[in-house]
Amino acid sequence: MKSMTVSEKSEAQKSTKDLALDFGRAWEYAPSPEATDHVKIEKRYELFIGGKWVAPKSGKYFPTVSPSTEETLAEVAEANAEDVDLAVRAARRAYDGVWSRMRPEERGKYIFRIARAIQEKARELAIVETLDGGKPIKESRDVDIPLAAAHFFYHAGWADKLDYAFHGRKARPLGVAGQVIPWNFPLLMAAWKLAPALACGNTVVLKPAETTPLSALFLARIIEECELPEGVVNIVTGAGATGAAVVDHPGIDKIAFTGSTAVGKRIQAALAGSHKRLTLELGGKAANIVFADAPIDQAIEGIVNGIYFNQGHVCCAGSRLLVEESVHDVVVRKLADRIKTLRLGDPLDKNTDIGAINSKMQLDKIRELVASGEKEGAQLYQSTCPIPQKGYFFPPTFFTGASQSSRIAREEIFGPVLTVMTFRTPDEAIEKANNTMYGLSAGIWTDKGAKIFHMATRLKAGVIWGNTFNKFDPTSPFGGYKESGFGREGGRQGLSAYVELDG
Amino acid sequence: MYLRRVKSNGHDSLARANGDSVSRAYTPLFAPPPVDQVAVEERVASLAKRSLKKGAKVAGLKLSIRMMDLTTLEGKDTPGKVRALCNKAMHPLDSDPSLGPCAAICVYPNMVKVAKEALRGSGVFVASVATAFPSGLSPIEIKLDDVRRAVDFGADEIDMVIDRGAMLMGDYAKVFDEIARTKDACGKAHLKVILETGELGSYDMVRKASEIGIAAGGDFIKTSTGKVQPAATLGVTLVMLETIRDHYYATGRKIGMKPAGGVRTAKQALQYLVVVKETLGDAWLDPDLFRFGASALLNDVLMQLEKERTGNYQAAEDFSKD
Amino acid sequence: MKTRTESHVDAADVAVPGPLAVTDPSGASAGLPRLRVTKAYKMYVGGAFVRSESGRYFRVASEEAQGDADPAGVNIPRGSRKDVRDAVVVAKAAYEKWEARTPFNRGQILYRLAEVVESRAKELEHSLVRAGQSRAEAAREVAATVDRAVFYAGFADKVSALVASHNPVSGPHFGFSVPEAMGIVAVIAPESPSLLGLASVVLPPITGGNSVIVVASEADPRTAIVFSECLATSDLPGGVINVLTGYGSEMGPIFAKHREISAIDAWTADEALRATLEREAASSVKRVKTHPSPNAEMWFDRRRGQGLGFIERHLETKSIWHPVGV
Q: Do B33 and A467 touch (CB under 8 A)?
């Protein structure tokens, strides 16, 4: 080695430019599927209203399908307006009769019970979540379920400490909360919604997403086992019409919704003049900003975690990568190699990194947007990993050379698709990052602490991650700026969504 | 590559080559990319959770045996002890001749001849620590002489230690020069550069020392002497592998990696292999480019292999302690 | 109190000679009283006093001629869609700089405003009297307004301490949440009390770093304009508070539809207007809070007429995760 002449060096330049790593079959991981035999999924699920499992007045049931196998897992009751009305009445009775009168510390103890029961049943809940939603078991096992338990545990402790929470202002519950949640983190979103509502003394009518109702129904069983007073939590399954019936019900005092910005806007408009309180956690198109002075190899992991975590079905996904121009080529080269190592396939396999797309509809939407990216002239990078014959799958993908105005740079794709763009100065990074109607999250990668703070102050987003991405914690308020919604979930600040304050 | 050595005052010194635009993936010696501790540890924790079952486990464990530098580096080492270890390296498990052999035996210079003799014809290499191992705090002439004598005794590989004091004082030129001169002294023997990461204090320093070790001529970079805690960890191994990756991207040259010290269980060995597989890919899943420096590891690997073969958990006493 | 009349000139409003006169040294007009100069009332936008771009106006009469420069009735600009547009442009520019100031500095400027309002107390009282209040009521309202400014002046650099948090996340990160201004807050001020109500709803959002566009009381916009003169002579940068006059029912929906406005705070008895604002605001997911007009006395109540809630309503929470490592 020692030294090299100039001509040797340029020769090396030529030959090394296209070097790529070979992630082949030298040592393959054997399939390692999580055993599912101890999880019993019923053939049919009724509605959970007033502490009882009741057949829907609608008389209708819909299938819930595993997106990785396209097999029907169970039939689930479809609640209509009449069913929702029964649920709201049950919640009201529970609010007036029991829950709002209960000593706060007793309320807290019920919520602690739920947290503990989730921990006890963590394995089966993880399996159900993965079966019904398609997410990799390692994520439901290590992220969704532990965080769901943590949210209940955290909020349980608030129940008898609300007098400390608002600087002397007295907090009282709102009454009956109607909560409509999405399919990307089914149990975790149920926890984010239920835990603060219950801790603050409200009762709840919860509507899970139609493609992922099972874990909420398992949670209903847990709530039964924990002997919560009947009607404190009611779970009505169904699709958009069921959600609309919850939103429109005059007996509800507060609506909390997590989902798309389009639906959020419709809900906000529908509630006009109703006096119902509202919090919205909507879409995003987060910028993940990588500076030249970043720890590049760790930034690559952050990029991967930002966009490929949960197949990119994450409202706060880092779907726009803004890279300082001087390191663009390096980042692209490394990222292109890195996505080759992502393991796509059976979500129940413990080594699967990328599971199934949640539904056929979502898969079609992703394909359509990726096609538009190619049509608009962006350069496509895509893993060539094998795609299972059955089920809805989409390989990890990223685009370079996309314009700031292209659809793949502006629209929320909600899939494993990243759009890479460049910037030259911190100001330009801020300008481009903020150049969106969304404002949910952002990531900053730099070795310079001062720069993290500088950027964090100027980015218009509710959650900012410095040298990390997609981190959640019950103590950390989560929620958006601009059209990503309003209100926070988690932390002391999140309690405001479920109380009325005197001044 | 990025550094050329120029003569100044009769000693080797360094200067950065101009126009270093071969690849921005590879940053020159004195300004390596920063490393984020939190993210490194998160990454290895995630890799450590890979689930390795049945065939994958057996194949990984068998591979790990072939990657082992079976090591004894004790003041009480004797020819008898070394011969026993050599025998173990050549035939890790008498009942299964398909296992092994190990990659090398790693000993002090005085034991090289014994090992060389014991291993003759086996294909198992003899590695010798040198350069005033483990501290490296002796005059350079003595360290070089140590290397030359070990090579003369028949060592195929030299495991040197860097001057951590110089490293921590910022005298990177000294560290570089000593490695380069050691490489010269090695002749045909391969050079492994021990960074003693447990004394370097941060991943940034590990990264920097790795860059220097590679640039100055190391064929392998190695975490530790085994005499300092912490020794090898998945985190420092990842950072070193990332340095190797950047060097490969920039030059096409493949540098080897050797975690040493602290790798005691089969489970750990598999975790290291996962980190290698998912960081550098197939080419490095080979004893030519990846080694474990270990003594206790082999028996645990053998025990796990027997468990896989028989379906029953094994007892430690069933395996020879050499 | 006379009610508002539109574009209609009352005979009583024709200027009459006032009591003040100066001697004309030429003697030419000896004995004739001096013709007083009446004031054209303008909206306060971007630190300047402007007419409505639309050229429209509405008449506001007063209880009685007070012997001052004003005629009994004055023409007040009737703000339009384009006035809102212009106000948004300056409010946006002002917000970015206002939010970047230190809370201590914002507090000092709010205190300066209190000083200026106090020093112009007589003028403000006068305007309130013209709008139909007794001298005593007017004095009480102005005094309460000064105190309200002092209250928020002292709050500016304490809001963070009360609403920010350290979030002890389970992992190697330092997590914290800080309040941040929303941007431009559009406000429909309470009809009454016209001065204290206005101050009580525009000061809290700017305390938190927002800029404000407010539609003043329709019944007494004149006092809002006098108050704007206080704003203009305090150290408050132009554009931080923009005072429009006109009809809330006309301008409110324009606020609601304007995508650059982040939040609406509407104090109005008009239930249909409240519903319209809530509905129209949905198209850009605005933060909207509408309030049925409370009893005017509420604003004098130290517990209910002011407080952290008024500030917090127009703050976002930003949660930041910073790595902790070597």
A: no
B118 assigned to some structural domain: yes
Distance of alpha carbon A256 from the chain centroid: 15
Which residues in A lie closer than 8 A to residue C318 (C-beta atoms)? Answer: 456, 461-464
Whether residue C53 contacts residue C82, with contact meaning beta carbons closer than 8 Å, is answered with yes
B27 is a domain residue: no
Which residues of B have a catalytic role annotated?
A: 159, 222, 258
pLDDT > 60? residue C18: no
Q: Region B67-89: what's the mean pLDDT?
A: 97
Inter-chain CB pairs, A–B, below 8 Å: 128
Q: Write down the domain spans for chain A.
A: 44-282+482-501, 287-466
C168 min Cα distance to partner chain B (Å)? 16
Output A87 or C18, whichever has higher pLDDT.
A87
Burial of B13 per CB tally in 10 Å (0-12, 13-18, 19+) = middle
Exposed/middle/buried for residue A405 (C-beta within 10 Å: 0-12, 13-18, 19+): exposed
Neighbours of chain C (3+ CB pairs under 8 A): A, B
The number of folded domains in chain B is 1
**CATH topology (fold) of A44-282+482-501:** Aldehyde Dehydrogenase; Chain A, domain 1 (3.40.605)
Q: Residue length, chain C?
A: 326
Q: Is A129 a catalytic residue?
A: no
Q: Across the interface, do B38 and C173 touch by the CB < 8 Å criterion?
A: yes
ipTM of the complex, rounded to two decimals: 0.95
Chain B residues with beta carbon closer than 8 angstroms to that of C324: 38
Amino acid A14: pLDDT = 58
Which fold does the domain C101-323 belong to in CATH?
Aldehyde Dehydrogenase; Chain A, domain 1 (3.40.605)
Per-residue confidence (pLDDT) for residue A168, from 0 to 100: 84
Q: What is the mean pLDDT of residues B115-125?
A: 97
Q: Note whether B254 contacts A: Cβ–Cβ < 8 A.
A: no
Catalytic annotation present for A210 = no
> Tokens in use for C225?
């304009």
Q: Which of A226, A315, A316, A385 is catalytic?
A: A315
Indicate whether B32 belongs to any domain: no
Q: Cβ distance A305 to B42 under 8 Å?
A: no
Residues 6+ apart with CB under 8 A from C123: C226
* Range scoring the smallest mean pLDDT among A80-84, C37-41, C84-88, C109-113: C37-41
Query: Nearest CA of chain C to the CA of B203: how many Å?
Result: 8
Asked if B171 reaches chain C (Cβ–Cβ under 8 Å), the answer is no
Q: Please list every residue in chain C whose beta carbon sits closer than 8 Å to the beta carbon of residue B44.
A: none
- Calculate mean pLDDT across residues B180-203: 98
| Per-residue pLDDT tens over the stretch B241-299 | 999 999 999 999 999 999 999 999 999 999 999 999 999 999 999 999 999 999 999 99
- The yes-or-no verdict on residue B25 having pLDDT over 70 is no
Q: Find out whether A105 and A89 touch, Cβ atoms under 8 Å.
A: no
CATH of domain A287-466: 3.40.309.10
**If pLDDT is split at 50, 70 and 90, which confidence band does B9 have?**
very low
Closest residue in B to C324 (Cα–Cα): B38
Taking an 8 Å cut-off on Cβ atoms, the answer to whether B39 and A467 are in contact is: yes
* Cα radius of gyration rounded to whole Å, chain C: 22
Closest CB to C323 among B36, B201, B203: B36
Set A78, A139, A210, A281: catalytic member = A281
Cα distance between the two ends of chain B: 43
Nearest CA in chain A to B53: A30
Across residues A377-399, what is the average pLDDT?
Answer: 97
Quick check: B38 and C326 CB within 8 A? no
Residue A471 predicted with pLDDT over 80: yes
Chain A residue with Cα closest to C299: A503
Amino acid letter, B160: M
Alpha-carbon torsion, ordered A154, A282, C277, C45, to 10 deg? 100
- pLDDT tens-digit series, residues A246-296: 999 999 999 999 999 999 999 999 999 999 999 999 999 999 999 999 999
Euclidean distance between CA atoms C177 and C125, whole angstroms: 43
pLDDT value of residue B1 = 31
